[in-house]
């Protein structure tokens, strides 16, 4: 989708706006965008339009069960690829090998791992980032403000759980409103 079309749909049709200063891609070309909150399939629509609107070709991991005809074709066309959640170790290894060699890569990951409220966010993004050299940005969407942005760069340490706990705290301090507020928690 062309940037102008995506931006028009996001802003004029859906009524969203981009966080000031985040209306074009960061200078870096290899990034994992953590995206929260994630409580609805509409989050993917808003996120997709946002990243297309700022000129990015976003890659997204989606459970393999969603790749049925004709939705699977559409998801692949939009940059999604199926994941088998029953074999996360195999998924991680193949994903790391694929991403290591890409010159330009924008990968979106929802650290919650599901659209339901979870207290302990997933740490897979951490392994992917450290093994591939991708930077991590704390992206967000706020349904109350109708605002979406890619957020600040987050420097990782070697401790995935501590980093994820700090990230959850940062998101908590942002006071974001999810489409389904009961499905989102940072505590």
Description of the structure:
By secondary structure, the protein is an alpha/beta fold. It has one domain. It starts with a helix and ends in a 13-residue tail after the last helix. Strands 1, 2, 3, 4, 5, 6, 7 and 8 form an eight-stranded mixed β-sheet that branches. Strand 6 (135-142) and strand 7 form a beta hairpin. The chain has helices spanning 3-13, 41-53, 71-77, 88-100, 124-132, 160-174; strands at residues 17-18, 30-36, 58-63, 80-83, 105-109, 135-142, 147-149, 153-154. 36% of the residues lie in helices and 20% in strands.
Brief description of this entry?
Helix content is 36%, strand content 20%. The chain has 6 helices and 8 strands.
């Amino acid at each position: 989708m062309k940037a102008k079309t995506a931006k028009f749909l996001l802003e004029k049709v859906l009524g969203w706006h981009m966080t000031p200063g985040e209306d074009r891609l960061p200078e870096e070309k290899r990034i994992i965008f953590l995206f929260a909150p994630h409580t609805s399939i509409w989050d993917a629509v808003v996120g997709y339009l946002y990243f297309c609107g700022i000129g990015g070709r976003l890659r997204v991991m989606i459970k393999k069960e969603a790749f049925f005809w004709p939705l699977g074709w559409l998801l692949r066309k939009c940059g999604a690829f199926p994941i088998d959640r029953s074999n996360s170790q195999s998924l991680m290894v193949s994903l790391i090998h694929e991403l290591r060699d890409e010159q330009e890569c924008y990968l979106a990951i929802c650290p919650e791992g599901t659209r339901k409220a979870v207290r302990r966010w997933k740490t897979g993004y951490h392994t992917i980032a450290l093994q591939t050299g991708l930077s991590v940005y704390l992206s967000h969407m706020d349904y109350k403000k109708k605002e979406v942005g890619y957020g600040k760069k987050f420097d990782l340490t070697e401790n995935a759980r501590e980093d994820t706990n700090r990230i959850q705290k940062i998101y908590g301090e942002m006071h974001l409103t999810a489409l389904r507020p009961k499905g989102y928690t940072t505590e």
